[in-house]
Amino acid sequence: MSLSRLIIQNFRNLNAVDLELSHGFNFLVGENGSGKTSLLEAIFYLGHGRSFKSNVSNRIIHYDHDDFILHGKIDEAKHSWSVGLQKKRQGETVLKINGQDGNKIADLAHLLPMQIIMPEGLTLLNGGPSYRRAFLDWGLFHLHPQFYSEWTALRRLLKQRNAALAQVRQYQDLLHWDKELVKLTEKVSQMRVDYATKLSPEIEKTCQFFLPELEITAQFYQGWNKDQDYAEVLAQGFERDKGIGYTMIGAQKADFRFRANGLPVEDVLSRGQLKLLMCALRLAQGEYLIQQKQQQCLFLIDDFASELDLNKRELLTQRLRESQSQVFVTAITKDQLHYMDWQNNANDVLFEVQDGEITPC
Ligand SMILES: Nc1ncnc2c1ncn2[C@@H]1O[C@H](COP(=O)(O)OP(=O)(O)OP(=O)(O)O)[C@@H](O)[C@H]1O
Ligand SMILES: [Mg+2]
Predict the structure, then answer these.
(1) Which residues surround ligand 2, an ion (CB under 5 A)?
(2) Selected residue with higher pLDDT from 308 and 171
(3) Ligand 1 within 6 A of 270 CB?
(4) Could you tell me the residue ranges of all domains in the chain?
(5) Could you identify the atom of ligand 1 that is nearest to the CA of residue 31?
(6) Phi, psi at residue 167, to the nearest 5°?
(7) Domain 1-113+295-361, CATH among 3.40.50.1820, 3.40.50.300, 3.40.50.720, 3.40.50.2300
(8) Looking at residue 78, what is its pLDDT?
(9) What integer pLDDT is reported at residue 10 of this predicted model?
(10) pLDDT band at 263, cuts 50/70/90?
(11) With pLDDT > 70 as the criterion, what percentage of the chain qualifies?
(12) Which residue, 216, 241, 334, 346, shows the most beta carbons closer than 10 Å to its own?
């Protein structure tokens, strides 16, 4: 799977972009503010129906226009898909896959799995558990056909339970919700445990490649004490939950934590090491998907050269090349790309980005 063509209209400063893309490495070189990150953001939007930068889509639509349009052609060995997404200033989203309406963003996301590696992505390691849950759930979304519907149902039920907490007087009145909640929570948690158990050795191996001086371990926390029955946890926490107005304990609090030589990574690693670890995690997860599903994964790499020494940049390039993935890499100058050996690979394409115009060179 690769994105072979991308058309962008009125997305930030990218007013009219039409690119034939390489299924290997695509390099984007340009000055500050030229539109490099915006191109990665557009690809990300096409695969998620949202931005990695802003929750307000009106900020993404070009100042002088009322909508943005993204159109992509996705090629696989035997199929190809044409996907289109239009976002209007009034909030409406129009999504088409092969010219057909009635698709969901999740259908689009299944077609375009992608991992993004960017400086802001360090929140995966030093931000709250929600970033790591999102990381874990990405893999489940792509690998486990049931996960998305179960997790959506669980979140819906939690909302209903939270609203009901204000109405009920005794725990008996909640039992009706909790029976279903326990069932769904156990299912979702089991899927996460199984996936985390399989992914962890892959992560640990990839970390040895990038950070051989450290012993990195990954551990999943389901969100409540694993020796306790979740039904009991809910019953015992009723008065507290009622007091605060929401369900404090459960799968919505799960975490996937990383340690270096037994200590929390965010406390002991240098910034460069954290960056390498983030890169190793995303690479390991993308590669695991490729291996399990025989489906490609895109890698979007923004401003990666900064803070990494030459040897590490080369290691990253080597791994990405071996995975035969489609990769998008931004840089301010061509010099920063030497370590990616771009001149010796026939499939590589270099684009120059200037004031929102993108041209191959
Ligand atoms: N809604 C919008 N409409 C038009 N232009 C916008 C909009 N939002 C942001 N911009 C502008 O788009 C330009 C592209 O920004 P982008 O972040 O893509 O640059 P960049 O090439 O990644 O730069 P850097 O090297 O500094 O990271 C910026 O000049 C920004 O001010
Ligand atoms: Mg940028």
Answers:
(1) 37
(2) 171
(3) no
(4) 1-113+295-361, 122-294
(5) 25
(6) -90, -35
(7) 3.40.50.300
(8) 87
(9) 98
(10) very high
(11) 100
(12) 216
Superfamily of domain 122-294: RecF/RecN/SMC, N-terminal domain (1.20.1050.90)
Nearest CA to ligand 1 atom 30: 33
Greatest pairwise CA separation for the chain in angstroms: 71
CA–CA separation, 25 vs 18, rounded Å?
17
d(CA 145, CA 301): 28
Report which protein residue has its CA nearest ligand 1's atom 29: 33
- Concatenated DSSP letters for 126-185? HS-HHHHHHHHHHHHHHH-TTHHHHHHHHHHHHHHHHHHHTT-SSGGGGHHHHHHHHHHH
**pLDDT tens profile 51-110:** 999 888 899 999 999 999 999 999 998 899 999 999 999 999 999 999 999 899 999 999
Per-residue pLDDT, 360: 95
pLDDT higher than 90, residue 338: no
| CB within 8 Å of 110: residues ≥ 6 apart | 141, 142
**Nearest protein CA to atom 28 of ligand 1, as residue:** 33
Decide if 110 contacts 102 (C-beta within 8 A).
Answer: no
| Amino acid type, 258 | F
